[in-house]
Amino acid sequence: MKTTCFRLFMLVLGFGFSAACGDDDSDPSSKDAAVSTDADVASDAQASGDDAGSDDGEDPSSTTTVLDLDDVKTNPTDYEWFDFRPNIKKLILAGAAETEHIAILWYTTTDGGVALHYHSKTESVYVVDGSQTDAKGTYPTGSMYFNPPGSGHQVTDSSGFFLLAYAAPPDFANTALIGEYTPVRIDTTSEDFTSMYPFEKKKDGVRTFETPLDVEGGMSAEFIELGSAKKYDYTGNYVLVLQGECEIEGSEYGENKVVVTKTVDTQPFSVAAPKGSSCLAVGVSF
User: Fold this and answer.
1) Is a pLDDT exceeding 90 seen at residue 232?
2) Which residue of 37, 59, 78, 283 lies most exposed, with the fewest beta carbons within 10 A?
3) Residue pLDDT, tens place only, 10-36
4) pLDDT 10s digits, 180-219
5) Predicted TM-score (pTM) of this structure
6) In three state form, how does the secondary structure of the chain look?
């Protein structure tokens, strides 16, 4: 099957952007998986990105993409998704198929699944809408979990939309390396979220919780709680607004808005709570 690449146009701080596509978690050896290889997909993705600067209205100096996750789940057909295997679609937002990357995954049926695969580095999953199931349990909407390096799983009975970050791509060939592990699981919808986790005061009106991840996993994550008119400087790959309104790099965003770097290079984000408001966000960094 010939793999084609698309460009998806949305708002990026008032400008259009082009996002490259890439591979998904499906087992390329399974009979229903796409036959294109990681290298094929990566080549197509690079080709799409090479002429991004020619798009009308695009700011070539912009280093971030802004995505409205509520719009993605409400109007998915307005977006041009890649079909990688039956009932699974995926869009890479930053990075490439054979490297660390950030992506949106869409299971289009209630029984979507991914074959057993190994993670040599940390995997992060935020459930935008729906649920995902593996041997460790079911993760409903609002869940965020991190699988450590050396972990692996088979995904079953899943549907909906997921924001993914991989410090290394999933490996379907070396599943024998999967060891015992416990995912770090966080319920971002809990009413007492900021009291049930050990947030630390950074300064008046600013508290953070650094997720306890394996330092060998190549990824870190930090939850940020801000009071009215308070500011915090975060360096990472994306910032996702979980509750309230956040001002990120001078622009205000509500819940389920994510600001993503266009490459896998980290960059500084100025995160603040607008006057009269509060903000809860999470940042992920490679």
Assistant:
1) yes
2) 78
3) 333 333 333 334 344 444 333 333 323
4) 999 999 999 998 999 999 999 999 999 999 999 999 999 9
5) 0.80
6) CCCCCCCCCCCECCEECCCCCCCCCCCCCCCCCCCCCHHHHHHHHHHHHHCHHHCCCECCCCCEEEEEHHHHHHCHHHCCCEEEECCEEEEEEEECCCCCEEEEEEEEEEEEEEEEEEECCCEEEEEEEEEEEECCEEEECCEEEEECCCEEEEEEEEEEEEEEEECCCCECCCHHHCCCCCCEEEECCCCCHHHHCCCEEEECCEEEEECCCCHHHCCEEEEEEECCCCEEEEEECEEEEEEECEEECCEEECCCEEEEECCCCCEEEEEECCCCCCEEEEEEEC
**For the chain, what is the mean pLDDT?**
82
Q: Class for domain 193-285, per CATH? A: mainly beta
Q: Which two tokens stand for residue 58?
A: 């695009």
Whether residue 283 contacts residue 224, with contact meaning beta carbons closer than 8 Å, is answered with: yes
Q: Check residues 156 and 228 and name the one with the higher pLDDT.
A: 156
Superfamily per CATH, domain 38-187: Jelly Rolls (2.60.120.10)
Q: How far is CA 41 from CA 85, 124, 263, in A?
A: 13, 22, 17
State which amino acid sits at residue 256.
N
Q: Tell me, what's the pLDDT at 87?
A: 87
The reply to whether domains 38-187 and 193-285 share a CATH topology is: yes
pLDDT in tens, 52-78: 333 344 466 789 999 999 999 998 888
The residue type at 262: K
Query: Which two structure tokens, joined as six digits, stand for 37?
Result: 């290889």
Listed by start position, the domains of the chain span 38-187, 193-285
